[in-house]
Design a protein that fits this description.
- With about 400 residues, this protein is an alpha/beta fold.
- The strands form three sheets. The protein has a six-stranded mixed β-sheet with strand order 6-5-4-3-1-14. A six-stranded mixed β-sheet has the order 7-8-9-10-12-13, covered by helices on one side.
- It has one domain: Carbon-nitrogen hydrolase (Nitrilase/N-carbamoyl-D-aminoacid amidohydrolase).
- The longest helix has 19 residues.
- It is built from eleven helices and 14 strands.
- The protein is globular and about 55 Å long.
- The chain starts with 14 loop residues before the first strand and ends in an 8-residue tail after the last helix.
Amino acid sequence: MKDPASNASGPVAPYMAVGLSTVAHCIAERRHIKHNIATIEDAIHAAVSIIGINMPVKLIALAEGALTGFTDEIFDLPHRLAADELFIDVPGEETEALGRLAKMYSTYIVVQCKARWPEVIEGRYFNVLFVIGPDGEVIHKAAKNHLWCREHSCTPHDVYDRWVELFGSGLDAFYPVLKTADIGNIGTICCSDGEYPEAVRALAFNGAEVVYRPSEAVPMTNFGGSPGGSWMVQNRAHAEFNNLYMLCPNIGPVYLSAASRHPIDIAGGNSHIIGFRGEVLSQSASANNTMVSAVIDIEALRQFRAMNLNSNWLKDLRTELFREMYAQPIHPKNLWMKQDPLHHGAVDEIYRQNIESLYARGAWTRPHFRHPGAQRLPEGDPGMSAEQWAEAKKMWSCWD
């Protein structure tokens, strides 16, 4: 009898994976995305022509923010306004533009962009991870599950009941993996997702062999004296604990608007690719239209998992010991089922309640002195209104 876990299509040839760090302009309208796509297209042409000399480039990864920048987060825009005016559909005209490049070079392109998902819920946008195949079509789609405290995106957990109704409650519903015959099994998370070991572990249980985790910001990327800071530490640990590759491009310097004279390097560079033993295969200090690349050897990974009796950790995980750890919730689900995601100040209060819940259950011990915590300045600012946004959009007038 044939082993159902075997690869019916035969061995996977080694190939080059590329992570692109591109300079990005924050957008004020969806049509402005074309300016960032032009930069991305140049970067893809350069990457394939240079790196493809060594070995075929089969996987190209863009950074978080490469298409749109971070306008909604910086300006604390009303969620529905940002959904209507800034973000994309998957598939849509932007995926078609990238699809032409994927088809041209017979490669996979893995992308992040905030996007509407109307079949889940109207009037919302999600932080979407998607893969475009060599035929130019979108073949994988997932959503970011954990946000940093200044991101307005909706997550599956925020509309949990609706998500489960459509996709079920299994790991596949929240951490799907794209399984291919020619580049292995690809999992996708984004930025803050990787702050939680469970995210990559969930992808590993679903068969992931390469995990895409784009972008992180300072101070995480420059904390301490080692390149990449704690972002690098996390990704090396994900790779080592789960025996998989981590593909981690960081966003380049970001222009606040089309009128900005200089970009700001909010992310701190240090894109990298990590091997399945946690070793750094490629790293670039700069993110100013740069790239990282490395050989991905899926067969070597599979042999390591199959032959080892020591450091292929997933094989002897004692799952029963951890079953009760997550029985009691921390962050409330279904927050945005009936209302739009709120502005920064109001969401800060939700996080503070989460902190209090950890004290209440005895997980944390309070410090002796109580000091004011992190806050949005000025305190009490409700966020930018539609009228204020209309005035602010004049910064993008040079694109009009």
